[in-house]
Amino acid sequence: MKSELSQQEDVRQKVRSGYAEIAASGSERRESCCCGGNAGDLAAAVGYTAEELAALPEGANMGLSCGNPNALAALKPGEVVLDLGSGGGFDVFIAGRKVGPQGRAIGVDMTAEMLAKARKNVTSYRESSGLDNVEFRLGEIEHLPIADATIDAVISNCVINLSPNKAQVWREIARVLRPGGRVAVSDSALLKPLPAAVARMVEALVGCVAGAVLITETERMAREAGLADITLTSKSSYVESMVTWEDPLYRKIVEALPTGTKPSDFITSLEVTARKPGGACCHDDCCAG
């Protein structure tokens, strides 16, 4: 029987391979990514504005979103923001414009092919925005290449569920955040456990489904990492849209589900916001503890 560390590495390799294939394809790949329909339509559906999408470098939006963490984070000029699992740079390029010339947007991704795609787009971003404030680093989100207490806001879009050690990811988030720093995550989560047939599907793993955990587990891990003011908001309409758009992955899930059930009975898009205690207070007791 494989050790837990060996099993975790197997999961990482499956995810790395799947997303390398998406990056190398040069276009949205519906059999293995977590979203369906047109990438622009999907991004608009989860709250990105037409102006934000029009300003993106070509190919940065690969339809890998399940929410809009940039909007959740309410980024301010001058802040340093970190995107976990930054892919082709979609959320980093949007965040860079929000934090402006005095701020910085950093993306971390473990897939070299995704990193290359994002870095290739930096020149286009600089030319169109007039900003030189984004960077992309190779690394695992369980072991972030970021110094302690240097980040104002951590964002992530449909990525943490892919990690085989989510508790470690949340500890890393807490480590890199400055006191008073905040988290804004959109992710896949479970309302109840998936049927075994769905959980075993490799496509579901790479597609942000099989690796998802119960909402209560996400809250527990964030709290045990030391984060406070945790708010979780379920958005099941996202999953219903995947079915309506006849996303290939969700078609397979529908076929594997027990009769009389639907994907949104099990899977949801989850918005998670939280704060690292300390720093400037925004209400009377926010610095307590």
Describe the 3D structure.
The chain is globular. It has a 7-stranded mixed beta sheet with strand order 3-2-1-4-5-7-6, sandwiched between helices. It has 289 residues and is α/β, with parallel strands linked by helices. The chain is built from 13 helices and 7 strands. The protein has helices at residues 4-25, 39-45, 50-54, 69-73, 90-99, 112-120, 122-129, 166-176, 196-199, 202-206, 215-224, 237-244, 248-256; strands spanning 80-84, 104-109, 134-138, 151-157, 177-190, 228-235, 267-275. The longest helix has 22 residues, at 4-25.
Helices and strands, with pairings:
Elements: H1 4-25, H2 39-45, H3 50-54, H4 69-73, E1 80-84, H5 90-99, E2 104-109, H6 112-120, H7 122-129, E3 134-138, E4 151-157, H8 166-176, E5 177-190, H9 196-199, H10 202-206, H11 215-224, E6 228-235, H12 237-244, H13 248-256, E7 267-275
Parallel strand pairs: 1-2, 1-4, 2-3, 4-5
Antiparallel strand pairs: 5-7, 6-7
Would you report the number of β strands? 7
CATH topology (level 3) name = Rossmann fold
Strand order of the largest sheet: 3-2-1-4-5-7-6
Rg, alpha carbons: 18 Å
Number of helices: 13
Largest sheet: 7 strands, mixed
Question: Whole-number average pLDDT?
Answer: 82
Distance between the termini: 43 Å
State the helical fraction.
25-40%
Number of domains: 1
Q: At the first level of CATH, what is the class?
A: Alpha Beta
**CATH-defined architecture:** 3-Layer(aba) Sandwich
**Low-confidence stretches at least 5 residues in length (pLDDT < 50)?**
27-37, 281-289
Question: What is the helix/strand order?
Answer: HHHHEHEHHEEHEHHHEHHE
The secondary structure category is alpha/beta
Fourth-level CATH superfamily? Vaccinia Virus protein VP39
Mass-distribution shape:
globular
Percent in strands: 15-25%
